[in-house]
Every structure is written in C-alpha cells, then in structure tokens.
Amino acid sequence: MAVSLVSLDDIRRARDVIAGRVHRTPLFSSTLLGRRTDTRLFLKAENLQKTGSFKPRGVLNKLRHLTPDEKRRGLVTISAGNHAQALAYAAAAEGLAAVVVMPEGASETKAAASRAYSAEVIIHGTVYQAFDKVHELQESRGLTLVHPYDDPLIIAGHGTAGLEIVEDLPEVDLVIVPVGGGGLISGVAAAVKQSRPSARVVGVEPQGAPTVTEALRAGQPVRIERIATIADGLAPPITGEYPLAHVRAFVDEIVLVSEDELADGVQAMLQYAKLLAEPAGAAGLAALLAGRVTAPAGARVAVVVSGGNIDLPRLRQVL
Fold first, then answer.
1. Section 198-216 average pLDDT
2. pLDDT computed for residue 1 by the predictor
3. What angle do CA 171, 161, 95 make, to 5 degrees?
4. Phi first, then psi: what are they for 143, rounded to 5°?
5. pLDDT band at 311 (very low <50, low <70, confident <90, very high)
6. How far is CA 86 from CA 31, 61, 91, 281, 310, in A?
C-alpha cells in the first residue's frame, strides 16, 4: 500500500494541538557521559514527560482528530504499558472511556497507573494474543482503535519531540532514538531530517526484539515469533506500514543492543546523569556507550530518553 509521509507542517500542527497539555521536556547536557563517548552529549528527557514517557504526544494529537461518534463509542488499544498509560491519561482528561489490553507479564506498575486514570485494563495472553483481543473488542463493542504506532497522527505527535531537539540544539549532528514499533523514531526522524538534513538519525532495537530490523530485511512488516528482552517498551511483535516507510525515508541506520548493554545504559544514566530510565529509555545511551553507534570526536549528539517507567524489581535486576 502507498503510505504518505508525515510532513514538517503535520508535526507543527501537532505541536499546536498538544501545546499546554504536555511538557516541553528539557535537553540536558551530560559532560561526564560526553567524555566517555568523546562527544558533546545531550539527553532529551522524555522520562520526565507526563505519564513518564513520550507517548502522550501522539495520543493527544490522535484524539484531537477523532469524530464525536468515534469518541462516544470508547477507545481501545494494546500496550506493554507506556501507550496504555498515555491513552488512559488522555481519555480521562477528555471524559472518554478507554480499554487497554496488556499481555500477561506486563508491568504491574504500568497497569496500575492505567487503572488509576480510570481505564479498563484487560490482561490477556501473549503479546500476539493480546493483539487479537484488541481486534475482537473493536468488533464486539464497537470501540475505536488508537494504535500505539502505526498511525500518521501518532507519528506526527511524537515528531514534536524532534522539533524541540532541533530548536534547542540547532547544530545537532546525530540523534539516537529507541525503536519499538517505530512510531517514535518515525516522528523524530521526520522532524529532524526535514529541519536539518545533514543530521544523522540512528535507531536502537534490542537484539531480542529486532522488529524493524527484520522488516527492513524482508521489505515489509514481519511478525517476530520470539521476543525476549528486558526492554518491554521496545517489544512489539510487528512494526507497521507507516513506521517502515518513515524509517526507510528518514533513518540512516538501525543498530541492535544486547541485554547487558541495556542494563549498562540504565546504570550509566542513573549514575552520571541522575536520570531514571527504563531499559527502553536507556537504549540510545546503551548503544553509544557500547560502540554500536559511532560519532566523530566532538559531535553534538542528542539521545532520546523515551521513558522512565520501571518497576522496582526490574530496577534491582538491572542495577
């Protein structure tokens, strides 16, 4: 299918939609981490965003474009947790009913936060079975799907983080972004490449969940049959047509990191930058520290810290 790419104007319009409803998160410099990587390093702290991740950016933009009937029927989504919280938060703010389906083993902290925003949380099977459950609920209840990543309005909303990076660091040389389903990197890369074409954009996936890597290799989204990673925010079983098209158009490279490298990223983020990131949120820094991503000496590098919603047992595991 032909997929239209999100434009810079689409992202600017999304920024107007979500203005005042999300934080303009800081872009912190990190001298010590910069010395370790021989770069001028900056951290885009989306772990300090409302609900603890970048996700409300896209969700709020999506909800703005739903019809009154689509809103009235109620909303449904699937998520390992961060998108669930964002939808629950945004739906509560607008007085809408929301159902979030989470696979068994999903973060209880993220599930509890979604319930606290008054969403109905359904824990169901594997991640593959959870996707099937969402489609069943769409049909049986007439709910409106708010997809976690395969939607141009979601992508445009997430792209607002990329706009902020370029505005705060106009001469950025490299932007490193965690990759799950691909919605975040699609939006950030679209914003960066259409604002500063000379900047490189690199995505980071776990070795145990190479969703976009496999799609690029196959030339189409493919279902990953076995997912094993501590980065639950980067573990969807398949990417979408929209993210794949944006990655092809705007992303220079996708790299893979190991589980040990993800844990090292969490530790380094906490020790040197005093930021608490979940493994997904630390993936960009992990790739840079491990040499999976290289940059010229002194390059201006922005790393997106996509989320900070980590359970205490998982935090103990990685520290």
1. 97
2. 59
3. 165
4. -75, 160
5. confident
6. 32, 12, 8, 16, 15
Among 55, 110, 133, 193, the one annotated catalytic: 55
Q: Partners of 253 in the beta sheet?
A: 202
Distance between CA atoms of residues 100 and 131, nearest Å: 11
55 noted as active-site residue: yes
193 is catalytic: no
- Per cent of the chain over pLDDT 70 is 100
Distance CA 309, CA 251 (A): 26
List the domains of the chain with CATH numbers.
8-52+152-318 (3.40.50.1100), 56-145 (3.40.50.1100)
pLDDT tens-digit readout, 56-87: 999 999 999 999 999 999 999 999 889 999 99
Place of tokens 């092809």: 248
Pairing type for strands 27-29 and 40-45 reads: antiparallel
